[in-house]
Write a structure and sequence with these properties.
Blueprint (H helix, E strand, L loop, with lengths): L10 H5 L17 E11 L4 E11 L11 E7 L10 H9 L3 E6 L9 H19 L10 E11 L1 H10 L5 E7 L30 E6 L18 H7 L4 E6 L26 H20 L3 H16 L3 E5 L1
Length: 321
């Protein structure tokens, strides 16, 4: 395993009857420092320009770069938001040994093409792999090209799955309150293809769906995550292995970092604290990706124990297949 281990066991490991040598649990900041840079990623073949924030592990004081490099995670933002509004997730993942790309895709209220945005996501993967091969890049020789995961919130969650339908490089997918639809007028199957249930059988990577209990509550006119298009529909149509986590009291807008409140004001507010929604989601994501991209069985055991504890406390509901 590439995660740097400490010389003591975590409490979770002890409770499970094993001694995994963790430097930090997935709920804590990991052992790596964090580097970052912004990049203007231009796909000249399609005339698309994408602002890109990349966070990556710094190995000083935390060990050497793994022989095969670090896994890559592309994290997609929600509708009309920005990549940097999910920095907290990127920092958590980077501190545990992931290269994290946080793109800001070109879109407007009058121009949102889900097919083009999924192609943007594929381009970002290609771009990051090209940076890995560029001797002048900060990512040079840092990325494990065989270990790629995708994630995202709301529309970004749908895009993660839509791109993965035809991209076999994607090895694991984790989403935050994903929404399949494109709005009341989005009835063009070319611009707004439905993923669930139609395309879900084509996805064979492990899946994690985190959903907000209040995402389907109509606050202004329509719900931000309508029940007919939400995480439950993705889970119902998913191939195993898949995990569905319903965060009780969570609102659809609580997944983005502070600064996005005005852009998500139309979403029903949650009764849970936004800090808990974000921190618990980041912990679930970190453990899931460690387990499925790093083959870290201790991380998956930690995730099982954490989910059981959170469910016992009445904070979440969990389904598996």
């Amino acid at each position: 395993m590439r995660l740097q281990r400490a010389l003591s066991c975590t409490m979770v490991s002890l409770l499970l009857g094993s001694c995994a040598l963790w430097a930090a649990t997935p709920a804590e900041r990991g052992p790596y420092g964090i580097g970052e840079f912004h990049d203007d990623a231009v796909d000249t073949s399609r005339g698309r320009e994408i602002d890109l924030l990349i966070l990556y592990p710094l190995t000083t004081g935390a060990g050497e770069v793994p022989e095969a490099g670090f896994p890559l995670i592309v994290f997609n933002h929600g509708f009309m938001l920005r990549g940097d509004l999910y920095r907290s997730y990127g920092e958590q993942l980077a501190s545990h040994g992931f290269v994290v790309a946080l793109p800001t895709y070109p879109m407007s209220f009058s121009s949102v093409n889900h097919t083009a945005l999924a192609a943007d996501e594929r381009f970002i993967i290609d771009h990051c792999l090209a940076l890995d091969r560029d001797a002048g890049s900060s990512l040079h020789d840092l990325v494990d090209e065989s270990e790629i995961g995708v994630s995202g919130h709301s529309l970004g969650g749908k895009l993660a799955m839509l791109e993965a339908v035809t991209d076999e490089r994607v090895r694991a997918i984790a989403t935050l309150d994903p929404v399949d639809g494109g709005g009341p007028a989005a009835d063009d199957p070319v611009l707004y293809p439905s993923v669930a249930p139609e395309l879900m059988p084509q996805i064979h990577a492990p899946l994690l769906f985190i959903g907000a209990e209040f995402g389907g509550v109509a606050y202004f006119l329509i719900a931000c995550a309508p029940p007919s298009e939400n995480y439950e529909q993705f889970f119902a149509a998913a191939n195993p292995p898949a995990i569905e986590i319903t965060q009780l009291g969570a609102g659809h807008g609580q997944y983005a970092d502070p600064g996005a409140e005005s852009m998500l004001a139309a979403c029903a507010p949650g009764t849970a604290t936004a800090d808990w929604v974000r921190s618990s989601s980041a912990a679930y994501l970190t453990a899931f990706f460690l387990g499925h991209l790093e083959s870290d069985t201790a991380a998956l055991a930690w995730l099982d124990a954490r989910l059981a504890d959170d469910e016992a406390q009445g904070r979440i509901l969990v389904r598996r297949k």
